[in-house]
């Protein structure tokens, strides 16, 4: 169990620190691409659109992996490998949504430690908020911007360690149940996988709304032609 938790921690840290699609400029370009496709939409409408895209993606990936167990020739080990890849996708999708919503709010997350803290805190929801507020000594309703303020390096490091441990424990418990469900054959696993991912995905969306509050009334930066 300890080895598994250690591997999950390594995957999470590697993803949040090195994922090219999660770097500041890449996230900004993603938001810009959605805005260009829907130039008349407000910041709130763009956030809601990204939420729907996120939910569709993670629901579809969960169902696809669950369906793999029903395909003749794909054994249990093959299904477990597919679940592992899908879990990484789910984590990356959660991170991209969190950072994209932050970008709409005018919060640019450039530093690895800040990005790690923000994504983990949003994924955890209330328990993540409590860890952040305890570390910085400030209580606020919409706490997403707290993480990008000037936080001393030792405080940030300790906060991230607490967030990571909490996230891995909570994530492993919730995802392990989904893994077992996705391995059920005859198409049942597809339904469990899709519904399970959708439920967790909705939780991430609600956490992000709590972290950042309502989107700005207007865009700080207009699209260039």
Structural description of this entry:
The protein is mainly alpha-helical and about 220 residues long. The protein is built from eight helices and no strands. It has helices at about 1-20, 25-35, 45-70, 75-105, 110-125, 125-135, 155-180, 190-210. It is globular and about 45 Å long.
Entry summary:
By secondary structure, the chain is mainly α. It has 8 helices and no strands. It has helices spanning 2-18, 24-37, 43-68, 76-104, 112-124, 126-136, 153-182, 188-212.
List the helices and strands and how they pair.
Layout: H1 2-18, H2 24-37, H3 43-68, H4 76-104, H5 112-124, H6 126-136, H7 153-182, H8 188-212
Helix pairs in contact: 1-4, 1-5, 1-7, 2-4, 3-4, 3-8, 4-5, 4-8, 5-6, 5-7, 6-7, 7-8
Which keywords apply here?
225 residues, mainly alpha, globular, EcsC protein family protein, membrane, transmembrane, transmembrane helix
Number of strands: 0
Profile the largest sheet. Answer: none
Kindly state the percentage of residues in helix.
Answer: over 70%
Percent range for β-strand residues = under 5%
Low-confidence stretches: 62-86, 177-193
The oligomeric state is single chain
Computed CA radius of gyration, to the nearest angstrom = 18 Å
Number of helices: 8
Which term fits the overall shape?
globular
Label the structural class. mainly alpha
Which sequence of SSEs, written as H and E, runs from N to C?
HHHHHHHH
Distance between the termini: 53 Å
Mean pLDDT: 75
Protein name: EcsC protein family protein
Transmembrane segments: 54-75, 87-107
Organism: Rhodococcus kronopolitis
Keywords: Membrane, Transmembrane, Transmembrane helix
């Amino acid at each position: 169990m300890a080895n598994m938790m250690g591997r999950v921690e390594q995957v999470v840290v590697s993803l949040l620190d090195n994922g090219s699609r999660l770097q500041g400029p890449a996230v900004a370009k993603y938001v810009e691409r959605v805005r260009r496709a829907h130039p008349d939409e407000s910041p709130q409408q763009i956030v809601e659109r990204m939420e729907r895209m996120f939910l569709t993606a993670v629901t579809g990936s969960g169902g696809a992996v669950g369906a793999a167990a029903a395909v003749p020739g794909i054994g249990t080990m093959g299904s477990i490998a597919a679940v592992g890849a899908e879990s990484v996708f789910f984590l990356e999708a959660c991170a991209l949504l969190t950072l994209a919503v932050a970008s709409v709010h005018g919060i640019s997350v450039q530093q690895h430690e800040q990005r790690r803290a923000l994504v983990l805190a949003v994924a955890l929801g209330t328990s993540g908020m409590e860890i952040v507020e305890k570390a910085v000594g400030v209580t606020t309703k919409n706490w997403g911007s707290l993480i990008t303020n000037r936080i001393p390096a030792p405080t940030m490091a300790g906060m991230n360690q607490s967030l990571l441990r909490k996230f891995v424990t909570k994530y492993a418990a919730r995802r392990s149940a989904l893994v077992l469900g996705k391995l059920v054959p005859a198409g049942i696993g597809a339904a469990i996988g899709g519904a399970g991912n959708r439920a967790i995905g909705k939780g991430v969306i609600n956490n992000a709304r709590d972290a950042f509050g309502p989107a700005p009334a207007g865009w700080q930066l207009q699209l260039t032609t």
